[in-house]
Amino acid sequence: MNYKKHIQAAQGKLGILIPGLGAVSTTFIAGTLAARKGLGQPIGSITQMGKIRLGKRTENRNPAIHDFVPLASLNDLVFGGWDITPDNAWEAAMNAGVLDHALLADLKEEMETIQPMKAVFDHEFVKNLEGEHIKHEKTKMDSAKALIADIEKFKTENNCSRLVMIWCASTEIYVEQQAIHHDLLLFEKALENNHPAIAPSMMYAYAALKCGVPFVNGAPNLTCDVPAIVDLANELKVPIAGKDFKTGQTLMKTILGPGLKTRLIGIDGWFSTNILGNRDGKVLDDAGSFKTKEVSKLSVLESILEADLYPELYKEMYHKVRINYYPPKGDDKESWDNLDIFGWLGYKMQIKVNFLCKDSILAAPVVLDLALFIDLAHRAQMKGIQEWLSFYFKSPQTLPGLQPMHDIFLQKIKLENTLRHLMGENLINHLGLDYYEEEQ
Ligand SMILES: NC(=O)c1ccc[n+]([C@@H]2O[C@H](COP(=O)([O-])OP(=O)(O)OC[C@H]3O[C@@H](n4cnc5c(N)ncnc54)[C@H](O)[C@@H]3O)[C@@H](O)[C@H]2O)c1
């Protein structure tokens, strides 16, 4: 039996601060408000609908996760954010075109009050967008300080007892780690000196941590995935997690990939192509932003298949990912996967997957769960990288040198065992021999 961790109660309001009031975040906010009013069900959310098995299978103990661990209630959530356009959350949701106008009409009053604060934005990092509603500070450190002032003001004005920040803004261009990212002092100097390798998302992460606010990165940007920010999180005892919400095609890959691997079916090639027409698609039409996304998407399969251990099955696999901006699709993304696989004696077979998905509908419950779980982690005095939240990410952040786990089923076991561990319940290893030994 593990000991039960001391977890502070989830008392008072939890403010969820979101850089980027776009398709994902407004679908999340609207859905949460709708669930709160009984206008819709939070489908896909583990914190709202998930059950967890405790003890032996014969005990039949399967409480709801929100009854098992002390999570913030939906009624205690308050939303705020920043965007480069001044549209309020209702206008942004209408523009995103994900949710029905009839549903949004019922939520108009509450969503209109969510006015974005002026963003920290740099066109160099998102080439396909122009910022109009942005801060104009002299240095990147000044920008970070302005964000800190926003965070503090929001907390006071909304009477929040706790905050979390979750990045739902556009994908930034690919940035290689450099010396300034490796050390907190160098990083802070670089903020003062307007170093070009400090992205806006890093300033948001820095500001959040300086305020003791947990930070989650929903995009594939480097952001908090650098030693300077990890050190800051550990030093200030604040949890962080990332990166890149696992939805759509990659979700399918992490469901199919482990299945094929488990049966030791070989793969010659996996070609993935996507068309999407929302603003995210427009941003990813830029080569720099696409490169960031591509790196995040490609790493998934390599880790699941362990080609070094199974060279005859996966070493030669050709893996390609394409994303194309196609405006008529709007937020309804369509993806095609062609898998060339082989089995017994090398005989070849094919699998075709045509997924007509709504990215933001898949992302919204992920945002909700991450906000509630990272707040739980903070109240349980967990700090730094929260690998147990890998379940929700395309590129889970881990300690340097530690292979991330991409298999969604292993990730789920890890998440559930972390919750059991926090609450002093036995971990479940699925051995199950004890049932038979007791019989004899
Ligand atoms: N939709 C999904 O399923 C999914 C999955 C994984 C990751 N993501 C990532 O989540 C992010 C949001 O996706 P989306 O579909 O909502 O995109 P979106 O384009 O609809 O919204 C992004 C918003 O961020 C704003 N923005 C850009 N830079 C900003 C800055 N520096 N500060 C504040 N706001 C800024 C934009 O104006 C826009 O309103 C993207 O990075 C995307 O790659 C989405």
Structure description:
The chain is built from 17 helices and 11 strands. It folds into 2 domains: about 15-245 and about 360-420, NAD(P)-binding Rossmann-like Domain (Rossmann fold, 3-Layer(aba) Sandwich); about 250-355, Dihydrodipicolinate Reductase, domain 2 (2-Layer Sandwich), CATH 3.30.360.10. Helix 6 (about 140-155) crosses helix 8 (about 185-190). Helices cover about 40% and strands about 15% of the residues. By secondary structure, the chain is an alpha/beta fold. The protein has helices spanning about 25-35, 45-50, 65-70, 90-95, 100-110, 140-155, 180, 185-190, 200-210, 225-235, 250-260, 280-285, 285-305, 310-315, 360-380, 410-420, 435-440, and strands at about 15-20, 75-85, 115-120, 160-165, 215, 240, 265-275, 320-325, 330-340, 350-360, 385. Helix 10 links the parallel strand 5 and strand 6 (about 240). Strands 3-2-1-4-5-6-11 form a 7-stranded parallel sheet, with helices on both faces. Strands 8-7-9-10 form a 4-stranded mixed sheet. It binds nicotinamide-adenine-dinucleotide.
SSE diagram, text form:
Elements: E1 13-19, H1 23-36, H2 46-49, H3 65-68, E2 77-83, H4 89-96, H5 101-112, E3 117-118, H6 140-157, E4 160-167, H7 179-182, H8 184-192, H9 200-210, E5 215-217, H10 227-235, E6 239-242, H11 248-262, E7 266-276, H12 279-284, H13 287-305, H14 311-314, E8 318-325, E9 332-342, E10 348-358, H15 359-379, E11 384-385, H16 408-422, H17 433-439
Parallel strand pairs: 1-2, 1-4, 2-3, 4-5, 5-6, 6-11, 7-8
Antiparallel strand pairs: 7-9, 9-10
This protein binds nicotinamide-adenine-dinucleotide.
